[in-house]
Design goal:
Layout (H helix, E strand, L loop, with lengths): L12 H22 L2 H13 L7 H17 L3 H21 L1
Helix pairs in contact: 1-2, 2-4, 3-4
Length: 98
């Protein structure tokens, strides 16, 4: 019996996906390092938060809320505003899914 080969949508699709992922990772790194801490935390968490599978959005929402609380208690603006961005992204995913 012949082993099934994994099907790619087109030849080189996995390499294209790797290139896109690395570009987005570099973009997030560039944005996060070039902005003030509070703004970079918000933008990076918001952008990464919208890429979450909607099935896991409630768990990420809880993490975002915990991040807000812990960030404000520790007076760390990057963590606090990152939590705000993640919370908003997950709320958008939850309402978009319905």
């Amino acid at each position: 019996m012949e082993a099934k080969k994994p099907r790619e949508p087109f030849p080189g699709a996995y390499f294209a996906g790797l290139a896109i992922t690395l570009f987005l990772l570099y973009l997030v790194l560039a944005v996060g390092s070039s902005l003030p801490p509070a703004v970079s935390g918000f933008v990076v968490a918001l952008l990464l938060g919208v890429t979450v599978n909607p099935r896991y959005a409630p768990a990420f929402l809880a993490v975002g809320l915990l991040s807000v609380v812990l960030g404000y208690l520790a007076a760390d603006p990057q963590v606090a505003w990152g939590g705000v961005g993640l919370t908003l992204a997950e709320l958008a995913l939850l309402f978009w899914r319905r």
